[in-house]
């Protein structure tokens, strides 16, 4: 079966030629998914890197008898995500939601470190 393809149109202004160039190409669902796979891979590696640092924070807090949860810091992290999302034309609330999920993963990890 022939896969349907989506026409993608774009353009850019080239200063050297003082000309606007148009381009058009087509993408299939399979090609979009390949792009998503690559991004998933990069995201998962970054999350793994974040979790390595979180583990060290967990050890630090354990050694210094500190509370795992720090609501002030959580707000700062959520604001960072909201700002970055907004800069990329995404709703800030979705950035806060993603930060919330990452922080809950971090808390789980730090609780495991505490019990070791
Ligand atoms: O910065 C900390 O103190 C952390 O433990 C990390 C982290 C986070 O995931 O960003 C997780 C839990 C805290 O409530 C605040 C922030």
Automatic annotation (TrEMBL):
Annotated signal sequence range: none
Pfam families cross-referenced by the UniProt entry: CM_2
SMART domains in the record: CM_2
Domain Chorismate mutase: 23-114
Coiled coil region boundaries: 29-63
Molecular function (Gene Ontology), one example: chorismate mutase activity
Keywords: Coiled coil, Isomerase
E.C. number(s) listed in UniProt: 5.4.99.5
InterPro entries: Chorismate_II_sf, Chorismate_mutase-related, CM_dom_sf, CM_II_prokaryot
Domain of life: Archaea
Matches recorded under Gene3D superfamilies: Chorismate mutase (1.20.59.10)
GO biological process, one term: chorismate metabolic process
Record-given protein name: Chorismate mutase
Species per Swiss-Prot/TrEMBL record: Candidatus Nanohalobium constans
């Amino acid at each position: 079966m022939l896969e349907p393809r989506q026409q993608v149109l774009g353009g850019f202004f080239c200063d050297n030629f003082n000309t606007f160039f148009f381009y058009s190409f087509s993408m299939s669902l399979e090609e979009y998914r390949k792009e998503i796979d690559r991004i998933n891979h990069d995201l998962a590696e970054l999350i793994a890197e974040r979790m390595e640092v979180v583990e060290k924070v967990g050890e630090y807090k354990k050694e210094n008898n500190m509370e795992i949860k720090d609501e002030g810091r959580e707000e700062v992290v959520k604001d960072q995500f909201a700002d970055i999302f907004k800069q990329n034309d995404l709703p800030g609330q979705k950035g806060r939601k993603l930060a919330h999920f990452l922080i809950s993963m971090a808390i789980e990890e730090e609780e495991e470190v505490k019990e070791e």
